[in-house]
Amino acid sequence: MKHLGLWIILSVVAGVVTVQLHARWREEQANNRVLLAVDWSECRDLAGREGHADNELIASLKTSGVTAIVLPALTLQDLVSHRRVWPTTRPASGDLLDTEHLHFASRSLSEQAYRELSRRGAQDLRWSALDRELGLARTHGSFLALKDVEIGFDGDLINEMTIHGLAAILRVNADPWLDFQSMKDSLNENLGLPPVTGILFNSDDLPGGIEAMPLWCSWIRHHGALEPLFEFHASRAALQMAHGLAANTYRSHSIPALELKDLSADQEIFRWHRAVLERSNRILLMHASPSDSWPGFLKKITSLRMDLAEQGWIFKLPRNRVYWNDISRLQRSVYPWLAFLLAIVTPWTALWQGYSWTGFARLSWVEASYAVFLRMTLITLIGALVMTVLAQNPETRLEITPFRGIKAAFLLSWLGCIFILYSREEIRMVLSQYVRRWDIVLAAVVLAIVGYSLIRSGNASAAWKSAAEQGLRDRLEKLLWVRPRFKEFALGHPILLVGLYLDHLARRARIRWDGRPWIVLGMIGQVSIVNTFCHLHSPLGLAFFRMFNGLVLGLVIGFVLIQSISFLVPEDGA
Fold first, then answer.
1. Residue 487: pLDDT above 50?
2. How far is CA 198 from CA 60, 65, 152, 353, in A?
């Protein structure tokens, strides 16, 4: 009865954790939609030499598997290049915009240019006397000074995309000529466009200034638009908007064109596959390599779509996440610290509670080592799941606010294992001994292993991966679907098993070696399990598979090492 209150608290915590994890599991299982996007300007330039019309380009992209197109804002220079605007009088120089009179291809385009240029401070515009519906004129100077001023987005192009079933994502930049009131008027007019699918904020400053953020949030929520947030090098404006629009924000991925030229077709497919599967990116923006032709680029799009379709992905708009609520004060300020502390103490608890030979007297030495290892791993997993529930919220799931202190938690939780295995007197005795050359060599090796593991615990640079390691990673990815972590299956788990086995032999007085140093080093594997669940943007199922694959491989490698030792020290030998 004296432990009844503790059991009640543990039961309530277990129930809450189970419900939260089940809800996230169901959400991630249903989140199987991907948008395959391309950049319109890049596609138009790539296909320009073949003379395709815009509707032909859109039809080709749709046939190849594209589901969304990222559109930049129009400028007068763009319209001249595409022969949708031309001078009605002879230009003063070689530039076609060095004129006072322009003729537009459509009335809607002329009205849009008049409205947007006036909104941006060009007050000397008037309708051309020659053609009131299609012409614009300036009373002072030429249009050359306005050639790079944005005049909104191409409504005709968006209508054509809608006909073909393609989504439109607008790339929005901070416009120095657009003040708060003008931005408000533009949003009230719905940007002068048909409904669009998404808004990509592409600059550090928010269009209209930071005071326009509530206007943007209201507009995006009202229209159900999505906001792409690229996982690498996201703009400051996009991050600012994501904090207020987590439910409408979707992780996105793109491979720069300069990187594409160094990747083989299989390597590029693997990059996209990992971005979708491992990092929960739901918008993929494909760029063309400098060596790509237009037919070759379309072929790459088709190949990627077929590969993802074979994996069960559906090419539609991501599901609306209406169940994502605003973050509470506890979730923003208290829970991250609790999760950080739990990430540190979980391996300590696993070692403290799991490192016990009680109840294993009837087992063989090898069986007892495995039993202790599995008990420690189970405690580590339970602690990692509780930590996940504490740390997860819409912002951490999107990595808008990443899990803070992953490397610090990794180092502190590993170092703390020393104080659990060794008493204060033993530590003082070790520090009082003379240092030998072998001690320096061993310490250097251990520091190198731990340092490398610490560096690789986050999103380390590709420079830390050798070609051989990357090849092995790709093979494991193909073979096991989810690649396990090297510091678990190749380092931590086998060394921990060997350390437990040596410690068991020492307890039976069969050897004089101390197995505890190996246990301390092997705890890197247990710390890595917790670290895996700290990456909250990765699917929960993937974290389980990664841990399971690492566990199985680590057990196999550890078994081989233990069997090799057992030949030297047989159980039934004298």
1. yes
2. 22, 19, 15, 51
